[in-house]
Each structure stands twice: as C-alpha cells, then as structure tokens.
Specification:
The protein has about 650 residues and is mostly beta strands. Helices cover about 10% and strands about 30% of the residues.
C-alpha cells in the first residue's frame, strides 16, 4: 500500500534487518581475484560489463552432457496485453481464478462472490506449481497439479475498491472471499491424445486450502510453546490456515511443502503495544496492514494488539499430503520462521534430506535444513515426521569463495539466555534474530534456491536490492543499488557417495549478474551471446527440467526494462552456460511464477500471477483483461501450459 493511498500490494522496499552491516573494503576487486584464481574469467568488456561464455560461433546443439541443447527461436521482448511464446510453441489456460474445481461448485460471479463460493473455485494469484503424475487411464495422461495462491489483488477482483479507505470498509463476506482466494489448490488434470490438458472437476483428490477454513497442526520445536498460544488455541498446536503461500517443494516421500512468505502484511496493530515488540519489528509486523486492514476488523486474530502471538503462527513451511484430501496440513517449525520463499529439496547421498530456503526481503538470509534421520523409501510411515528433527543453518558467504553454514542451535553461543533465547522454540520463532547474532550474510532478496538434478549444484536467485549502499557491498552481493539482481551457484564438497549437501562448507561463485549487457552502468555479467531480448532483470523463481536446463522467471522487468515479465532458459554448464534466452512473456502487469516441467519435458506449467497489477489499473479499467478479454470480467490469474506444437520437449 503506497503512502498516497493507492493500492500497491507488496511494496518491495521493506527492510526489517537492522544489522545489514558487514562492510568490506574493495570487495569487487577481491571477488575478481578469486574468479581469476578459479580460472573462469573470460574477458572484461568495457570497464564494467563482464561477459562469460563459449568461443565465437559456439553451437548450442548440445549441452555439457551431450544432450540436445536449446535451439528454439527466441521470443522478442515486448509489452502486451496477452501472453506470448516462442515460435513453434503454444500456450493454453489450464485453470484460472474462479474456475470451479468441483462439479457442484458455482462459477465466478465477481458481483456476488463469497467465501463459500470461492472455496469451490481455483484461487487467485497462483504461484508455486508441482505436477505429480497419476496412473494413466488408457491413452489419457493424468496428474495432480498442486498450486499455491499467494495473495489477492482485491482492487482488481471486485468493483468499487480504489483506495485504502475502500479496502478498510470492506464487508465481511468480501473479506472472506478474499481469504478463501488465497492458500492452495490441488486439482486433477488430464491430457487426451494430441489434446490440451484439462481440469477434471470429478477428481477425487481436488482440494482447496485457505486461511479461512483449513485447520492445521503445528509440529517441531515451537509446537505447544507459550509464544504460539492465542485465545482461540491455548495449546499452541492448532492454527487456522496458512498465509501468503509463495514457493514450495515436493518431498521424496511425496508430500507438498508450501511456504508462508509475506505473512506480516496481513497483520495490523502497534508492535510496541505487545510483549513481542522486538520480534514483530524484526519481521515487519508493525502498524496498519499493508495488505487489507479489514482483515483485523472482521477477524481480531489479525490485530496484534488483541492477539500478540498470532503472527508467530505464520512464516513457516507447511507440509501436507496431496494424495489424501482429508489430511491435516502441518507447520514444520524446525525449518525456522521467516518470509519463506520456497523449498529446494535434495536427498543427500546418505539419505538425509536437505532443504534450502531463501528469506525474501532485502538484507535477509539463505538457510539450510538437514534432517536428523535419513529418508527410508521402503518405509513410508517412517518419513512422516522426518522434518521435525534436524539442524537449521544459515549461510555466511566469505570473500575466499567459501560459504559456511552456521547452525541455529539453542545453547550454542550466542543463542542462549544472555540473548533472550530460552529454548530451540525461541530460536526457530526468531530465526532472523538468531541468524543476525551468528553473523550470516545479508543478501539481495533471496527468492528461489534451486538444486540442479543433473550437476548437483545449488542456484540461489537474488532478485534485487536497490537499498544496498556502496559501503555494504560484499563479494556475494557485489553491486550497490542492485536493481537487476544476480544468481549465485553453490558447490557442495565431494564425499564418497556423491556431493555432500550436509557439509559445513561449500564453495560459491557468481552464476549470473543480471542486467543489460549493452549498458555498461548495469555491470552485467552474462554470456557474451545473450541477445537484447534474452537478458534478465530481477530473476525470481527457477526450475530445472530433466536435462538440467535452468528456467527462470522475472519480477521487476516492467520497471527496469519497460517490458512484460519473462520466462527465460539457459544451460548451467558448457559453452552456453548462463546464455539466457526469452521463451515466454506474460500479459502486462503480471509476474510469472511457479515454473514446473513434466518429467518427460513435454509440458511446462507456469503461473501468470497478478495480470493487470499496474499503477492506475483497477476493476473498472484494468490494464488488461487477460485471459478472457470479456468486458464484463476483470483479468484473472491463471496457470498456463506451454508445449511444442509437434510434441517435442520444451526448449527444443
Ligand atoms: Fe512470493 Fe518472494 O516471492
Ligand atoms: Ca517469488
Ligand atoms: Ca519477487
Ligand atoms: Ca509475487
């Protein structure tokens, strides 16, 4: 919400970390020295733009593993009211906001929407997507699509909501509709021979999860702690719903992890009026709701002066079983409380499960969780609570190219009573403050952290940070006023059975410094053959296909490049390493999220989030009415499927 009262849902200038102060001297030169020692330096172009990559004329017919490379004709960058894809491909809307997901659910009626009607429909602002194949029936391919719904653009959804005052006076039934529109959808989808994917409203596993109506359990170190108790739940073990589910992951045992990100935005009240003032301020929970103050009016649990512990019940990773529509989701507190962007999951060579997490805010940290016990594929029940025991760590990036994982363990100094930590519950509830004390490296907005299934390395997407001053530049965050963002690559050490994702120290390198390579002031670092359509700004979500190609979406290019947000793809090894190419663009005002590729690489799902979210755009006159272009309907966020017209793998 902007100061002038216009509606700007997630202001991106939030900074909650008061300790963002590791000051280095001439760290850019230090980073350069290190790269030279690694032998990876290619050439400086001009004084400021570094372009890495293959020899002139290098072919992209094969990647570093001898697999077919990326050969599609690149899409031209633009700004359009509709979505566009590279020649040879097509896209279709699979599920959009308001589509009934049960055969008895009503269709979308924006003039009469309620919580009840919305709970039978696909939610708003789709984000993370997972595809879980189901057994085919004859020639019909089937699968479950699990989709997060991060937040709602209420001023685009419903008539008459132009200002903050309009939102604040929303009636309860409309607030309920808004609450029901976020959370998560599980939908069964099927693809007929040669045809489109379709939502199956008869699917027995179809389900909606929301902050309005889905009871959840709490497990792990903070479960049952006094700081999680409220007037509605004296046990501190039962929470109604989940908030701001952004990214996620699929565990090796087939459950879904959905991550609570900007939960702070829904709460109202003065932090200083609560016994949790220090904690709430560190998480940006202070003052009127930046999302919709009407939540606290109709639901006092979102007023922190009434329920000071309610924010402690959000900001977690939530696990649920999509194959059991009656299962109760569980908030796994061992993974720490933060603005969880997503969950990058690896099964280590010894069977322990490793989850990488970004805390998406300027100057926040990158975390890792390692389970205490190994995953046992032969005993599914044994994995049920695997995420309740393990070690949460936070990353410190050093100039020598090493990253050290610092454990957040109660009792190990400084995480003790001298600093207000009386138990591991306190450590996970205040994971950010614990990480401050350990000396973690404040990063440029950690969004997705994605492990490559092919080379085993980890890719940390750092979206941007225009608030980083020159005297707070460091080797891993090498640009002041970093408006374009960058991507780091982490390499775990080798162990007898493979890469050791549980090791205390990894190596890190810069994979990509985003920006326009033809603009020296951007100080971009990219492949020398990246085109004027292919350069990336504000990378956000990432996903690997089965061949190890890295797909990246952007969130911010509309400001930095004046174009619609894009879906880009590149190799991560070989001569085409970091040669990003534009594959797909969303309609204006939208952000692309949640990329997910089927195991055969032939279908790519992507979420088109908040189409029409632009200055001056509202229900009456949205900047686009994608995808229906019906003058009676507002724009609708939707999951889109992209495929090649001849059935080839995407990116061919
Ligand atoms: Fe929901 Fe950080 O993106
Ligand atoms: Ca994101
Ligand atoms: Ca973002
Ligand atoms: Ca978003």
């Amino acid at each position: 919400m902007a100061e002038d009262g216009s509606l700007c849902y997630f202001e991106e200038d939030a900074v909650s970390n008061p300790t963002n102060g590791r000051v280095f001297r001439d760290v850019l030169s230090a980073a350069m020295t290190r790269r030279e020692s690694l032998g990876r330096l290619a050439a400086w172009v001009g004084a400021t733009t570094l372009c890495l990559g293959g020899s002139p004329g290098s072919s992209s017919a094969a990647n570093a593993f001898g697999q077919p490379g990326l050969t599609f004709p690149e899409l031209q960058r633009g700004l359009n009211e509709t979505a566009r894809v590279a020649d040879g491909y097509r896209w279709q809307v699979l599920a959009a906001w308001g589509d009934p997901i049960f055969n008895n659910a009503p269709g979308l009626n924006v003039w009469q929407q309620s919580g009840e009607s919305q709970l039978g429909q696909f939610g708003y602002n789709c984000d993370f997507i997972a595809f879980l194949p189901l057994a085919s029936r004859g020639r019909v391919e089937r699968g479950l699509l699990c989709v997060n719904h991060e937040y709602a653009n209420t001023n685009l959804m419903f008539p008459g909501l132009k200002t903050r005052d309009d939102l604040a006076s929303m009636p309860r039934h409309l607030v309920e509709a808004e609450m029901a529109a976020i959370g998560h959808s599980v939908i069964e989808i099927e693809r007929r021979p040669g045809g489109d994917w379709k939502l199956n409203q008869q699917g027995k596993l179809n389900r909606r999860i929301s902050p309005l109506a889905t009871p959840m359990h709490v497990s792990g170190p903070a479960a049952g702690h006094a700081r999680l108790t409220t007037s509605a739940d004296s046990t501190g073990r039962h929470v109604l719903g989940t908030l701001n589910n952004c990214g996620g992951g699929v565990t090796p045992w087939g459950t879904m992890l959905i991550c609570e990100e900007n939960f702070n935005a829904v709460f109202s009240g003065a932090a200083d009026a609560t016994p949790e003032a220090r904690n709430h301020k560190r998480y940006g929970v202070d003052g009127p709701s930046r999302f919709n103050p009407a939540w606290a009016t109709h639901f006092p649990r979102f007023n922190i002066e009434r329920e000071p512990n309610e924010p402690n019940r959000f900001g977690w990773v939530v696990e649920f079983d999509p194959h059991d529509p009656g299962s109760v989701p569980v908030k796994r507190t061992a993974l720490g409380r933060m603005k969880h962007e997503g969950a990058g999951i690896v099964t280590n060579h010894d069977g322990r499960v490793v989850i990488y997490c970004g805390d998406d805010e300027r100057f926040e940290y990158v975390y890792r969780f390692v389970t205490l016990r190994p995953f046992d594929a032969s005993q599914p029940e044994a994995n049920r609570n695997l995420l309740d025991e393990g070690t949460l760590s936070v990353a410190r990036f050093d100039e020598d190219g090493s990253v050290t994982w610092l454990p957040l363990v109660y009792g190990q100094a400084p995480l003790n009573s001298a600093n207000g930590f009386e138990s591991q519950a306190d450590v996970v509830i205040e994971a950010r403050r614990a990480a401050d004390l350990l000396g973690a490296t404040p990063m440029d907005r950690p969004e997705d952290v994605e492990p490559s299934p092919v080379n085993g390395r980890i890719y940390i997407i750092l979206s941007n940070n225009s608030k980083r001053p020159q005297n707070q530049v460091d080797a891993a965050n090498p640009r002041a006023n970093n408006v374009h963002g960058h991507v780091l690559e982490l390499t775990p050490p080798h162990a007898a059975g493979g890469l050791d994702h549980t090791a205390d120290r990894f190596e890190w390198d810069v994979f990509l410094r985003a920006g326009n390579p033809e603009n020296a002031a951007d100080q971009a670092e990219c492949h020398k053959d990246v085109s004027q359509s292919g350069w990336v700004s504000c990378p956000d979500n990432g996903a690997f296909d089965s061949r190890g190609r890295f797909w990246m979406t952007t969130d911010g290019a509309s400001e930095t490049a004046g174009t619609a947000e894009g879906l880009f793809v590149c190799e991560v090894d070989g001569v085409d390493r970091a040669r990003t190419r534009l594959f797909f663009q969303g309609p204006r005002g939208s952000e692309l999220t949640g990329v997910c590729i089927t195991p055969d690489d032939r279908s790519l799902f992507v979420s088109v989030q908040h189409p029409g979210e632009e200055e001056g755009s509202d229900f009456a006159s949205p900047s686009t009415r994608w995808p229906d272009f019906d003058p009676q309907r507002p724009p609708r966020p939707a999951v889109v499927v992209v495929s090649h017209r001849d059935g080839s793998p995407v990116g061919s």
